[in-house]
Design goal:
3-stranded antiparallel sheet, Rossmann fold, alpha/beta, globular
């Protein structure tokens, strides 16, 4: 992956399914040009999980893009600073709820640790291709093998079943960057 920065535009080369593409990131857009005038393929809205105000701003931007601007382009809501989990002020569920409500995709990263950034870039490109209907074979992340559940034997099996922790697992489609 190559990255270049020139006059406020960052360029990154991404390889997806054997095809190399170049992503250009504009941050922030030129104040003299309205966002409506730009011909963008996707929007990436980033907020800090440690700053509720940044999430509120991300909410307003997402609402503006989807409702007021009426864009049909891919919008990716990205939570940054996931390495600072003890300082977290914005829950992943709140962010997923926002993403689902405005038909966006959601990802969590840590720019400081370079955590999940490659997956995010590939996901952005995948979303652009899907939204623009550019034919591409679907890419699915490799899942790690699942652990088998331990079966309890003996007198403690009844207690193990009674006190087994059940967590409510919600399937968020906004987490999969490789589907619409």
């Amino acid at each position: 992956m190559l990255c270049f920065v020139e006059s406020g535009v960052m360029t990154v080369s991404v390889l997806l399914n054997g095809e190399e593409s170049t992503l250009e990131f504009i941050d922030p857009p030129d104040k003299n040009i309205s966002i409506e005038e730009l011909q963008l393929d996707a929007y990436v809205v980033v907020f800090s999980i440690t700053d509720k105000a940044s999430f509120d701003t991300a909410t307003n931007i997402t609402k503006y893009l989807r409702v007021e601007l009426g864009t049909d382009r891919a919008i990716l809501l990205v939570a940054n600073k996931i390495d600072l989990v003890r300082k977290r002020k914005v829950s992943a569920d709140d962010a997923r709820l926002l993403a689902t409500g405005y038909d966006c995709k959601y990802a969590e990263t840590s720019a400081a640790l370079n955590h999940h950034l490659d997956e995010l870039l590939v996901g952005i490109l995948s979303q652009i291709r899907l939204k623009l209907s550019i034919p591409v074979e679907p890419v699915y992340p490799i899942k790690s093998p699942t652990k088998e559940k331990k079966k309890h034997k003996g007198p403690f099996s009844i207690f193990a079943k009674l006190f087994q922790r059940k967590t409510k697992k919600v399937n968020y489609t906004c987490d999969n960057l490789f589907t619409l």
